[in-house]
Amino acid sequence: MKIAVSSLLGMALLCTAASPFALAQTREETSLWEAIKDSKDAEDYKAYLDKYPDGVYAPLAIRRAAEFEPHSAARAPSKPAGSKVDSKPAKETAKPRVPAPVIMKECEDAKACGTWTFLGSQGTGQWPSGETATLSVERFDADSVAIRRADSAGPSAGLTAEYRGTRRGDRIAGKLTADLPGQRHAVTGDWHATIENTPVDLPMLIHICIQCESGTGATLVWEHGHYRNAAALAGETEIFTVESFARDSVVLHRTDYGLHRGEAILAGRLSPQGNSIVDGVQRWIGNPNDDHDFHAAWGDAIGSVPGSKEPDPTLSARPAVCVLWFTSMICQ
After folding, report:
1. Do 192 and 179 touch, CB atoms closer than 8 A?
2. b/e per residue 128-137 (b: at least 16 CB within 10 A)
3. What values do phi and psi take at 70, rounded to 5?
4. What mean pLDDT do residues 143-149 have?
5. With CB atoms counted within 10 Å of each terminal CB, which end of the chain scores lower, N or C?
6. pTM (2 d.p.)
C-alpha cells in the first residue's frame, strides 16, 4: 500500500507503547552513548554504529566519526633522533579550490519540499516543518541515484529512508522506502528533486564576530572538511561544519570542545555581493534564550568585521583531495 511519508507521523504517535526489550535496549544504548559522547576518537563512534546502526544517536555518531577521522588517521611521522626540525611553517604555494556544496530541492507526495545540501558523499536535509536529516550518497551517476536518510530532529526523528531514482540532467524522480519508529512494515512513496545550478564556492578564510559591538572578531580557517576557529583560546577547539551555503540560506553547525562545551547553529543569508553573511543569528542548542547576532565576511569585505585587522594565520600546504561528484570532480 502506498502512503505519503507526512501522513505516517500521526500513525507513529499512536504506537507509544514500548516492549520491555525495547526499553532495555534504549537504556543500554543511552548508557553507551553517554560513555563516548565526549570522545575525540572516531573508532568510539564507529563501535557505537556497529552495534546501533539505526540508533537514536546514529546521525550524530556518523557526523562525529567523520569529523574526527582525519585527526586519528593523519598522524605526523616522528622525526629521527638528531634530525633538524624546521620551525618555519610551510607557505601555501597555490590555494586549492574549496568545493562548493551541491544544493538540491527535494519534494515528496503531500509534503512541503526540503533543501538537501551535499559536500562530497555526505549531506544534510532540512524541511520547513523542522525536520533535520543526515544524508549519505550511495550512488550518483549520469543515470541513477541512491541516497540514504536518517532523521535526527523534528516530528520525524528516528525515521530512516532510502531514495532511489532516475536522473535526467538536473531532474531526478523515483521511489522512496521509509521505516518509521514503531511501525512493523516499511512504506513507500514518490519523490523528485532538482539540482541547483549555481552553487557558491566556500571561502578559505572567514572573519566572524559574534556580538560585534564588543569589537572582537575571530578567523575561521577551512581544513579537514570544516572550519576551525584559529583564534580559540588554549585548550579550546571550535569546529564549524557547513550544513548549507546557498544564496538564500547559510547554516553552520558549531561544536565547542575543551573546558567550555556546547553546540550552536549559526544561520543567515549571503549578501548580494556574495562576500559576507547578513542577518546572522547564533542559537545555542538546549538554550533558546541565548541568541546573539553575528556578522561574517571574506574576500573584499573581510575588513568589515571587527578585529579583522590582525594578520591572517599562515595556511599550511596540503595536497588537494578530489571527489567524484555527479559527473565531475570537486577538489579541496
Report:
1. no
2. eeebbbbbeb
3. -60, -35
4. 91
5. N
6. 0.44
